[in-house]
Automatic annotation (TrEMBL):
Signal peptide boundaries: none
Top-level division of the source organism's lineage: Bacteria
Region (Disordered): 391-412
XdhC Rossmann domain segment(s): 223-370
Residues covered by the XdhC- CoxI domain: 12-78
Stated name of the protein: XshC-Cox1 family protein
Any Pfam family: XdhC_C
């Protein structure tokens, strides 16, 4: 939903009813992840995508029907066994798309949700997309781990919902359901993932029949780029493109300037190890944070890596340098008292072997490594592999921004 949210909120605030189709589950090689959305306005305009073009026409028609009837529909799209050119996915995947009418009446909390996202506050939207009792389908609750979610001047709350406090904004049918969905939604928020949850009709953990889709809108994960060099500018650009909140940090004020790093969200002048420790103490480091160390200067790198490799909450720590630089760095880290296990967390030389030479190519290499670790990819050419193209996250996977996933490799 995030990519279509500005248009959705604009039309919602204008009092319109919009048809919205959202991918709530995928199977095999589906082209878009859960959470991808498409809007159809009352003027016939379409925004967003659920499949990259495969079933957009069918979803467009269904969205108009749903607005007319007022009844949401959960529709499955896949390749037709009888006719491969029928409405479906030529890639061989399967999508479950939930299509619903969105208005101030059906989604009164949307303004407050948009305000929370503007402030960078985590919030989840839980919607019942399947239930044996049709009257339960479409029930929605907002889940917040914070004190409260409130509208603001930018989103003035025309639906009149006001603020709502920590927990669910409304019941999804019973205390048992509410407890289960709240616990699971908070877990998805912590990991930054959206997913469809399955329960029994009354929220039974091992049951079937009820499905709840949870959009988890967590603040953008962080990419900390240490070393204000030309490679850092390219890595910052790539990180921003992938949806990270990018910070460039260097102790040298002559190099660490906003004019040299226009794609970074912030540029900090500070000794890298001091900055990292301060951010950790302030609670701004989590399991989605990735660290790239690009200075390949021992006086900066070694104190920083001592800190980073002893922070198990970091998703990734990579350092640039030649093989000789890596061997020297590893020796210094051992002398500083780091264990083999701690040093084993370091990706060095940073990135996948793409033969990268330029800063831009190296940034792609770094992004490729992050994507491969996120989804368990081999890094081999797809033409040389067989089986599924799209992977599920593996153990220890790097959480990735938004619903589009991924960051990659580094040369060096």
């Amino acid at each position: 939903m995030r990519e279509v949210l500005p248009e959705l909120v604009r039309r919602w605030e204008a009092g319109e009813t919009i048809g919205m189709g959202t991918v709530v589950a995928t199977f095999r090689s589906a082209p878009r992840p859960p959470g991808a959305s498409m809007l159809v306005g009352p003027d016939g305009a379409a925004v967003g995508s659920v499949s990259g073009g495969c079933v957009e026409g069918a979803v467009y028609d269904l969205a108009q029907e749903v607005v007319g009837s007022g009844t949401p529909v959960l529709q499955r799209y896949g390749v037709s066994d009888d006719d491969a050119f029928a409405v479906g996915l030529t890639c061989g995947g399967i999508l479950d798309v939930y299509v619903e009418p969105v208005s101030q009446e059906t989604f009164p909390e949307l303004g407050a949700v948009a305000a929370a996202l503007d402030r960078g506050e985590p919030v989840a939207v839980a919607t019942v997309v399947e239930h044996p009792d049709p009257s339960r389908v479409g029930l929605r609750a907002i889940v917040s781990p914070g004190e409260e979610i409130v509208p603001d001047e930018k989103h003035p709350d025309p639906a009149g919902t006001g603020a709502f406090r920590q927990g669910l904004s409304r019941s999804l049918g019973s205390p048992r359901i509410d407890d289960a969905v709240q616990d699971d939604a908070l877990g998805l928020l912590a990991s930054g993932h959206s997913a469809t949850l399955s329960y029994g009709p009354d929220g039974e953990r091992r049951g079937e029949g009820m499905r709840v889709f949870v959009w988890a809108f967590a603040p953008a994960p962080r990419m900390l780029v240490f070393g204000a060099i030309d490679f850092a500018a390219a890595v910052a650009r790539m990180g921003s493109f992938l949806g990270y909140h990018v910070t460039v940090c260097d102790a040298r004020p002559v190099f660490a300037t906003t004019s040299r790093f226009p794609d970074a969200d912030e540029v900090v002048v500070e000794w890298p190890h001091r900055y990292l420790e301060a951010e950790r103490e302030a609670g701004r480091i989590d399991q989605r944070t990735v660290v790239t160390v690009l200075t390949h200067d021992p006086k900066f790198d070694v104190p920083l890596l001592e800190q980073a490799l002893r922070m198990p909450e970091l998703a990734y720590v990579g350092a640039m340098g030649s093989r000789r630089t890596h061997e020297d760095r590893e020796r210094r880290l051992r002398e500083a008292g780091l264990t083999d296990e701690e040093i084993g967390r370091l990706s060095s030389p940073i990135g996948l072997d793409l033969g990268a030479r330029t800063p831009e190519e190296t940034a792609v290499s770094i992004a490729a490594e992050l994507i491969a670790q996120r989804w368990g990819g081999s890094g081999e050419p797809l033409a040389a592999t067989s089986g599924r193209i799209h992977h599920d996250p593996g153990p220890g996977a790097i959480p990735v921004p938004g619903d589009v996933a991924g960051t990659g490799a580094y040369g060096g």
